[in-house]
Write a structure and sequence with these properties.
Blueprint: E1 5-9, E2 18-24, H1 28-36, E3 43-46, E4 62-65, E5 72-75, E6 81-85, H2 90-97, E7 102-104, H3 115-120, H4 128-131, E8 138-144, E9 150-153, H5 159-165, E10 174-184, E11 189-197, H6 200-210, E12 216-221, E13 233-240, E14 253-254, H7 266-278, E15 285-290, H8 291-295, E16 301-302, E17 313-320, H9 325-338, E18 346-351, E19 365-373, H10 376-391, E20 395-396, H11 406-412, H12 416-426, H13 435-439
Parallel strand pairs: 2-4, 3-4, 14-16
Antiparallel strand pairs: 1-2, 5-6, 6-10, 7-10, 8-9, 8-10, 11-13, 11-15, 12-13, 12-18, 17-19, 17-20, 18-19
Helix pairs in contact: 5-12, 9-10
């Protein structure tokens, strides 16, 4: 029988560490044993801990580490249907399936995300305008219920439980395995076109026009420019290439220590942004790159969150409806530029349709993501950005959230009460708990 250990755990945002009783499970019996032994603070399942806030944390409670449960049970190279354990990573699936001519329809910004996490956050990628989110390609998942039973859940067998689990940040039970459909690809490469864009209006015009011709559309945006150049950046347009490229040599750089807080300041970030903007010629450029290099560029820099210092990093990510999306983005960018806290990384893209989960993030609109070193000033800025998103009927991505209040959550996600009704039905004793569930009052009571 497995034995738990007291561990200090953080999320990717690296806020103050939590102390939990951690169970590194290797079998389904281990998962059940950990569930039955959970104390009054309940338990939450955890994959690779890549959420930025407290969704994968349970201070004073129990945490089940599911990453050892990572087997690919079956893959049909004719249909692209794959069945695997919930602890299996996108990296493992790419390694197994890309040589066979397949990849997941949806690939989030890092390959170090488990399939359980993909469901719990209904993850999306750089192709949401056409392919939707992970739940759009999901057949079923096996769920260890809080009462100890295992159920295979489909959208037809229990529609409410399916929709509550998809995007439900792990609160309906422990996902054990998943079956989903992959996309056929002609090679291991992407044909990438990069376009330098001079301002926000040009960015939005090109972004929407490109989506008619390219399955993958995403932009880097300079979060420090203002006036006529506000919103300048680089738009990346990609499609699967007809021919493969040589497999790149495995190479990664690791950040070995926490950067001092003064390293990422307005001047250093401004200089970096100017160089990054000019790395693409004014006329643009086209090249063929390995699929991993396009989908997961930050994975080549291990522990990059340490660049933000020992206090950690916020990532603010919101989606705002198209109707007033331009006005919303201008207000969000202006608030960021005026702030004493600069954003080192900015991403702009769009979404095409609503997710299938009650708490799924996706809905039609523009998506803006900004990273900030965690300071008192950036905390106030993130709260200001949340207010702006809410003003324009937008919402914040729970996988990135660390600052929402229960009232803000309910305003952004209209199905919260329906979600809580499902929790009351399947988990009346509130076994499943996390820092986020307590902060956002997401129990079923």
């Amino acid at each position: 029988m497995i034995r738990p250990s007291s561990q200090s755990l953080r999320s990717w945002g690296r806020a103050a560490p939590t102390v939990s009783r951690a169970w590194r499970v290797e079998t389904r019996d281990d998962v059940l044993a950990g569930m039955r032994a959970a104390g009054p603070r309940g338990l939450i399942a955890r994959g690779f801990g890549r959420s930025y806030g407290d969704a994968c944390l349970n201070d004073g409670g129990d945490v089940l580490d599911l990453t050892p449960l990572a087997s690919i049970h079956s893959f049909d190279p004719e249909t692209g249907v794959l069945h695997c354990d919930a602890g299996t990573s996108f990296r493992a699936i790419m390694q197994h399936c890309v040589p066979l001519g397949w990849q997941p329809h949806i690939c989030p910004g890092t390959a170090t995300i488990s399939m359980g996490g993909a469901i719990a956050n209904d993850v999306h990628g750089k192709n949401h305008h056409g392919a939707g989110s992970f739940g759009d390609h999901l057949d079923w998942f096996e769920l260890l219920m809080p009462d100890g039973t295992v159920r295979r859940i489909t959208a037809d067998s229990d529609p409410d439980l399916f929709a509550a689990t998809l995007g439900g940040i792990g609160l309906t039970g422990v996902i054990l395995s998943v079956q989903f459909r992959l996309a056929r690809i002609p090679s291991n490469a992407m044909d990438l076109r990069e376009v330098r864009v001079r301002d926000l209006d040009s960015f939005l015009e090109l972004l929407q026009a490109a989506e008619r011709d390219y399955p993958y559309v995403v932009g880097w945006i300079d979060g420090l420019t203002k006036g006529r150049t506000m919103g300048r950046g680089i738009l990346e347009l990609a499609r699967p290439a007809p021919e493969s490229v040589p497999e790149p040599r495995a190479f990664a750089v690791s950040i070995p220590f926490d950067f001092p807080t003064w390293v990422l300041n307005r001047y250093s970030i401004s200089a970096f942004n100017a160089l990054y903007y000019r790395r693409v010629p004014a006329a643009g450029r086209a090249r063929r790159v390995h699929v991993n290099g396009f989908l997961y560029p930050l994975d080549a820099l291990h522990q990059w969150n340490r660049m933000y210092g020992r206090n950690g990093v916020y990532q603010f990510q919101c989606v705002v409806p198209f109707a007033e999306g331009r006005r919303a983005l201008i207000e969000l960018m202006e608030a960021t530029v005026r702030s004493p806290t600069p954003s080192f990384l900015g991403v702009l893209k769009s979404m095409g349709r609503r997710g299938r989960g009650m708490l799924s993030f996706p809905m039609p609109g523009f998506v803006l993501a900004l990273d900030f070193a965690r300071t008192p000033e950036s905390t106030r800025l993130v709260k200001r950005l949340q207010d702006i998103a809410l003003k324009y009927d937008g919402r914040v991505y729970l996988a990135k959230d660390a600052c929402l209040t229960p009232a803000e959550l309910r305003a952004m996600y209209p199905e919260v009460e329906r979600f809580k009704a499902v929790l009351k039905r399947v988990d009346p004793t509130e076994l499943m708990q996390s820092g986020m569930s307590r902060r956002l009052d997401l129990s079923g009571s």
